[in-house]
Amino acid sequence: MQAARGAAVAAQSPDDPAAPRRTAWLVVTAVVVFIADVVSKVIVVATLSNRAPIVVIPHVLRLTLTRNSGAAFSVGTGSTWLFTAVAVAVVVVIIRSARSLASRGWAISFGLLLGGALGNLTDRLLRAPGPLRGEVVDWLELPHWPVFNVADSCIVCGGILAVVLAARGIRLDGTRDVRATGGEDATRGTAGGAQAGDSQT
């Protein structure tokens, strides 16, 4: 039984040259998120500047243009440079981790996080009042919730997906945490019963 378990783990080893790499999923997801975020912000700034909020769904969704110097959902305003540095660090960590990705779920999760981080980082670098201090454009408003943007929502979705994958024991390389199962216990019980029967005969 121990040998069979070792063989199963070895078959899922990240060093297996046949193990698929999911970098393409990360890149495609990040590019789609980044483009959607940048384009939506350009449209919003062009159409909603100096205008009252637009009600899309009464009591549910409004389009409200705001400028955010803090983190996602307007948290920590006044520390723009710090959040810029954090965003750069997140981008670097994700890019470095991409080399070991063999899980489609983790690739999509990282793609959502990377695209969202790059979308807001672009605002930090290019928008007023200046490089590294730029204010992020937020425009989606829900009741009793801070105004946010496409990048913010994708960062949250990527984080939730990462928690789900970790809870299911799925690793970056596509392998799963090995745990003893009821089937293994049943196998051991059957083997023990057979041995007991042999001794009685």
How would you summarize the topology of this molecule?
Blueprint: H1 2-11, H2 23-48, E1 54-57, E2 61-68, H3 80-97, H4 104-126, E3 136-141, H5 150-167, H6 182-200
Antiparallel strand pairs: 1-2, 2-3
Characterise the protein shown here.
With 201 residues, the protein is mainly alpha-helical. The protein has one domain. Helices cover 57% and strands 9% of the residues. The protein has 6 helices and 3 strands. The chain has a 3-stranded antiparallel sheet with strand order 1-2-3. A hairpin with a 3-residue loop joins strand 1 and strand 2. Helix 4 runs antiparallel to helix 5. The protein starts with a helix and ends with a helix. The N terminus and C terminus are likely disordered.
Number of DSSP strand runs:
3
The SSE string, one letter per element, is: HHEEHHEHH
Question: Helix tally?
Answer: 6
Q: What overall geometry do the principal axes of the alpha carbons give?
A: globular
Indicate the structural class. Answer: mainly alpha
C-alpha-based Rg, rounded: 24 Å
Strand content: 5-15%
Strand order of the largest sheet: 1-2-3
For the report, how would you describe the main beta sheet?
3 strands, antiparallel
**Poorly predicted ranges:** 1-19, 185-201
Helix coverage percent? 55-70%
> How many distinct folded domains?
1
Q: Give the overall average pLDDT.
A: 81
Task: Determine the N-to-C terminus distance.
Answer: 26 Å
Task: Kindly summarize this structure in a few lines.
The protein has 201 residues and is mainly alpha-helical. It has helices spanning 2-11, 23-48, 80-97, 104-126, 150-167, 182-200; strands spanning 54-57, 61-68, 136-141.
